[in-house]
């Protein structure tokens, strides 16, 4: 049997992801600050019968940016058009999307930091004045023709808000910074999702999953599905023992570190003497994309105090050394260890 999921199975999983997505602000768990900020923005616009300001959603993967963009459209009762930065390679791609928008429509551009530069400039004008200049013809005879757009609300999402050019960032009326979820919030996420899946999971089981979800609802839902599978196949109750057995099978340790996290940490400690080591060197040594290490692995290791970032590179902390079972070097100035 192969480990690969069949296309049907994959879409089945994605179906679950869709089913677990909260549809309204009220259903959206946690992020209380962002929720009330968004709610105010949307309510004020609705009361004044205008389109709300453009919204930028910034934060690490899996915290609910795509979900919130859908919620914005639902709350406004307007259609949603979804696209992404990498799909917009030319200004013309963006012009086609913008000119097809209906009044009040919500345009979601995921990974907006990866849009082509020429499209970015077109977007500035579109966001500000609901207009674009379309170039007609080529060379010396080319002219620009202004085109009026329907008023729309842009919702941009980015995992790398630092990469957004200032003029683009400044044109968003509101930037929501999504933070990692607290354990209590994740408990609510898991409890809600277990209910939707019809999976009877004990309170301790819920807490055990929440504690290993590294502050991320997407991970909480994924771990929950693996635990549910385990419970189904082995016919075990949804209790702590099942959670522990299932997550041990998938190499998720009690702090939520997975295989890649441990590999990165081990590489820093064992291959680079604890660091400092540069991001790209580290990425090559574990055979991963630098972007994945930077956006997914590193923030978590830094947050849990296992790794620090210095101007010269990544350095494993004392806790980091201990986590991979190595003995940290003595702190500078500390008395030498007794033999
Ligand atoms: N606040 C929340 N309450 C409950 N479930 C949530 C919440 N936020 C996210 N989720 C769940 O987590 C999953 C991932 O969320 P989403 O796709 O919105 O993340 P994202 O920020 O867009 O990630 P990426 O940067 O990778 O695109 C969703 O399927 C949803 O079910
Ligand atoms: Mg997303």
Automatic annotation (TrEMBL):
The UniProt record lists the keyword Hydrolase: yes
Domain AAA+ ATPase residues, every copy: 51-182
Binding site for DNA: 309, 314
Classification via PANTHER family: HOLLIDAY JUNCTION BRANCH MIGRATION COMPLEX SUBUNIT RUVB (PTHR42848:SF1), PTHR42848
Amino acids binding Mg(2+): 66
Record key words, sorted: ATP-binding, Cytoplasm, DNA damage, DNA recombination, DNA repair, DNA-binding, Helicase, Hydrolase, Nucleotide-binding
Species lineage: Bacteria, Bacillati, Actinomycetota, Actinomycetes, Micrococcales
Gene Ontology CC annotations of this record: cytoplasm; Holliday junction resolvase complex
GO molecular function, one term: four-way junction helicase activity
Name of this chain's protein: Holliday junction branch migration complex subunit RuvB
One Pfam family here: WHD_RuvB
Entry's free-text remark on domains: Has 3 domains, the large (RuvB-L) and small ATPase (RuvB-S) domains and the C-terminal head (RuvB-H) domain. The head domain binds DNA, while the ATPase domains jointly bind ATP, ADP or are empty depending on the state of the subunit in the translocation cycle. During a single DNA translocation step the structure of each domain remains the same, but their relative positions change.
Family membership noted in the UniProt record: Belongs to the RuvB family.
TM helices/strands, residue ranges: none
Subcellular location: Cytoplasm
Renumbered residue ranges of the record's region Head domain (RuvB-H): 254-339
UniProt-annotated binding residues for ATP: 20-21, 62, 65-67, 128-130, 171, 181, 218
Subunit structure, interactors included: Homohexamer. Forms an RuvA(8)-RuvB(12)-Holliday junction (HJ) complex. HJ DNA is sandwiched between 2 RuvA tetramers; dsDNA enters through RuvA and exits via RuvB. An RuvB hexamer assembles on each DNA strand where it exits the tetramer. Each RuvB hexamer is contacted by two RuvA subunits (via domain III) on 2 adjacent RuvB subunits; this complex drives branch migration. In the full resolvosome a probable DNA-RuvA(4)-RuvB(12)-RuvC(2) complex forms which resolves the HJ.
GO BP, one annotated term: DNA repair
Catalyses which reaction(s): ATP + H2O = ADP + phosphate + H(+)
Principal location: cytoplasm
Function in brief: The RuvA-RuvB-RuvC complex processes Holliday junction (HJ) DNA during genetic recombination and DNA repair, while the RuvA-RuvB complex plays an important role in the rescue of blocked DNA replication forks via replication fork reversal (RFR). RuvA specifically binds to HJ cruciform DNA, conferring on it an open structure. The RuvB hexamer acts as an ATP-dependent pump, pulling dsDNA into and through the RuvAB complex. RuvB forms 2 homohexamers on either side of HJ DNA bound by 1 or 2 RuvA tetramers; 4 subunits per hexamer contact DNA at a time.
InterPro entries per record: AAA+_ATPase, AAA_lid_4, DNA_helicase_Holl-junc_RuvB, P-loop_NTPase, RuvB-like_N, RuvB_wg_C, WH-like_DNA-bd_sf, WH_DNA-bd_sf
Enzyme Commission code: 3.6.4.-
